[in-house]
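We were asked to recover a plausible sequence for a given structure. The inputs and outputs are reproduced exactly as logged, with field labels preserved.

PROBLEM: sequence recovery
POSITIONS: 450
GIVEN STRUCTURE:
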């Protein structure tokens, strides 16, 4: 990564206990005005952020190992992105692409068509959120195939709209009490190597075997000719940073292709340099029919996309997809600048370097303490799965305690996982080495102390 001039000092500095008095005041105001249904991971309120730090309203400078859930890869106040947003906002903030179109939308589509895997004829359509992208990918697949059934996998997370809730696996907190859910969504077993029981002959189940198991169930329980789409995260995010066994994703994608089923790679969390490639599917040479993209694309301005086969996307009748804000010009300006910065700062390389720095440390720690069952992930998408000592039983209590302890010492980490027992690391890709190291040290101490 070329040298970066950070605006804020890249250091961990605590001036108060966390949360400090101003954060506590804001929490009191929040309780009286904001719905309690919205949760926040950390109880401190942000005032400023840059590179790998978030400065809170009490002047504490925290290490950010979450990037606002994999969003601020180029930093939360990247100057090139900020300038592009400012420039666009001074010209126009909205016309609605469905009313008076503009170049920025077209330019984002061109970039995504070129960046996504495969050199076949592709198109892109822009939306506002990850869930909206996934939902529209399903609409495209259903329309283009004339089929109804949609397949998602155990531990999947695809969003919180009605259709994407149905695709999402975990009940609490995402689905509980919010049904009924849409019909024709089927769930298949995932490849989760750490929790995969051995095959009957005692061998480790391969990715191809795990895919064959899902394929057999789809054939028997749904009927191959009824399936419009398989929706799969190439590395599962909210479900626990589950990296399927090699071969799982390519086998499913190949089978889907052979049967006219649309293979949708949900790269909302894995996409855009996070795993050390532009898209996680590239690691196994998979070319999805449709890719959903959000989070990292516009540094936090609401923007998402469905990108993929022109024959599928253009099969939908004109006016069939869209929305008032989809591809908002300010969000598009942010996306173009974000993509430029990812290229110019060589952030795919940087993500791999973050893995080189962090993974051996985390693995050494895991080998030393009894509660880390597995260290896994790719690039700057790394995770620790916590277990009870000497078992594979999930240990969500220790996980919560470690995350709370890390925060107490100024490091923001996120948890995830079906069993709530995974700490995930998603640092901004522009975090300097020393700050990453300081953040990891706090995390390591929190783990040892637990
Ligand atoms: N798909 C995946 C893989 C995600 O990780 C997320 C968000 N965590 C979504 C979809 C939904 O995105 P959004 O929150 O922008 O609707």
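RECOVERED SEQUENCE:
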């Amino acid at each position: 990564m070329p040298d970066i001039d950070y605006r804020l000092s890249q250091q961990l500095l605590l001036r108060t206990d966390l949360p400090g008095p101003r954060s506590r005041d804001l929490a009191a105001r929040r309780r009286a005005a904001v719905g309690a249904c919205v949760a926040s991971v950390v109880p401190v309120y942000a005032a400023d952020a840059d590179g790998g730090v978030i400065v809170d309203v009490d002047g504490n400078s925290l290490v950010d190992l979450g990037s606002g859930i994999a969003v601020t890869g180029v930093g939360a106040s990247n100057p090139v992105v900020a300038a592009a947003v400012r420039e666009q906002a001074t010209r126009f903030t909205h016309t609605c692409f469905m009313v008076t179109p503009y170049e920025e939308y077209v330019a984002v589509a061109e970039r995504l068509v070129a960046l996504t895997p495969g050199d076949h004829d592709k198109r892109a359509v822009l939306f506002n959120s990850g869930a909206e992208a996934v939902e529209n990918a399903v609409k495209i697949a259903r329309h283009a195939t004339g089929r109804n059934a949609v397949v998602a996998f155990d531990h999947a997370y695809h969003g919180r709209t009605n259709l994407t809730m149905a695709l999402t696996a975990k009940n609490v907190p995402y689905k509980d009490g919010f049904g009924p859910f849409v019909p024709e969504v089927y769930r298949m077993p995932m490849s989760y190597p750490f929790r995969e029981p051995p095959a009957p002959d005692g061998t480790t189940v391969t990715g191809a075997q795990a895919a064959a198991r899902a394929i057999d169930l789809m054939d028997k329980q749904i009927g191959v000719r009824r399936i419009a789409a398989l929706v799969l995260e190439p590395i599962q995010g909210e479900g626990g940073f589950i990296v399927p066994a090699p071969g799982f994703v390519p086998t499913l994608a190949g089978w889907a292709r052979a049967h006219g089923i649309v293979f949708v790679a949900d790269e909302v969390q894995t996409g855009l340099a996070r795993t050390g490639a532009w898209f996680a599917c590239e690691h196994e040479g998979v070319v999805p029919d449709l890719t959903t993209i959000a989070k990292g694309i516009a540094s936090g301005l609401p923007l998402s996309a469905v990108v993929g086969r022109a024959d599928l996307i253009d099969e939908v009748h004109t006016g069939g997809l869209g929305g008032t804000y989809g591809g908002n010009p300010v969000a598009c300006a942010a996306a173009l600048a974000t993509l430029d910065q990812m290229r110019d700062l060589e952030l795919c390389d940087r993500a791999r370097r973050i893995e080189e720095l962090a993974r051996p440390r985390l693995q050494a720690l895991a080998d030393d303490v009894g509660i880390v069952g597995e260290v896994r992930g790719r690039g700057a998408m790394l995770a620790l799965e916590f277990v009870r000592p000497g078992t594979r039983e999930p240990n969500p209590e220790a996980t919560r305690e470690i995350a709370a302890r890390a925060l107490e010492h100024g490091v923001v980490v996120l948890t995830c996982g079906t069993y709530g027992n995974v700490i995930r690391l998603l640092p901004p890709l522009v975090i300097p080495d020393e700050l990453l190291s300081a953040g990891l040290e706090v995390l390591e101490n929190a783990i040892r102390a637990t």
